[in-house]
Amino acid sequence: MSEESDSLRTSPSAASLSENELPPPAEPPGYVCSLTEELVLKAREELQEKPEWRLRDVQALRDMVRKEYPNLSTSLDDAFLLRFLRARKFDYDRALQLLVNYHSCRRSWPEVFSNLRPSALKDVLGSGFLTVLPCTDPRGCHILCIRPDRWIPSNYPFTENIRAIYLTLEKLIQSEETQVNGIVILTDYKGVSLSKASHFGPFIAKKVIGILQDGFPIRIKAVHVVNEPRIFKGIFAIIKPFLKEKIANRFFLHGSDLNSLHTNLPRNILPKEYGGTAGELDTATWNAVLLASEDDFVKEFCQPVPACDSILGQALLQEGLTSDAQCDDSMRAVKSQLYSCY
């Protein structure tokens, strides 16, 4: 609903109500922008977001959802829909497709999305597999740090790591600042063996990349990989067929050259493990942030979900997500590459 129409809405006076008639319940508070003036300008320049048209754009997307996907179980709140508009630079059609993909991905992978809450992932969180660094990069991007070597396959399946990553993304994207600035991923492959790499095959690669590229309203501005062993050539061979050129060009491989990393991520925002001056890597603080959000995640992910219908299944492929047949082809093409890297 536009700001103009909101300003024209008036409440009925008490005199207009009969003695037995109760006034209508108050509507929940509407969207209030939390962006700084600097970020409002950035959103205008990079995302085509015009504050004077913002609520009109949200209403347009809401109307499209109601018309084209009337049975889609989704929030239609202003703040929620804005995530999708920003992620697709206020292109209504692409924002709608992203919203549909968002729900389709969640319904098509119950192993990851069932009972998705922080308390169910204490083993992953306790392992130090991932955290969010306390400082943002010079562009204002939060830095998601992932350390695959911290995962012990005998303790829990790899999909638990994916669940923890998804919860982290959900928490990050609640911030309007993150919606505008995006995030950076820092992955440390030190100590990743062939046996661990074999758990990340084309099927999982297709699912994860499909979510990040086409099924989640977040802007990934860069992926920095450090300490990658020779085996990473095989891992990247699995990943690359599913990457769009835009995202593939945002991968930066630094090896053990931390000076190369520091040209992108300054030392003052990095922990000492990566040649930084911001103290030791802290995982406990982010774990506490997630665990404190338990109730929100229970409400979002632990309720009965309607079965995914054929419309959502078809919509999932319209934005470029690969099919299982394509995944099988990729498996045959790269299966031997993990071993040839040794």
From TrEMBL:
Bias type Polar residues, positions: 8-19
GO terms, molecular function: phosphatidylinositol bisphosphate binding
Domain CRAL-TRIO residue range list: 117-282
Pfam families, per the entry: CRAL_TRIO (PF00650), CRAL_TRIO_N (PF03765)
Residue numbers spanned by region Disordered: 1-30
Entry GO CC: membrane
Protein name according to UniProt: Alpha-tocopherol transfer protein-like
Lineage start: Eukaryota, Metazoa, Chordata, Craniata, Vertebrata
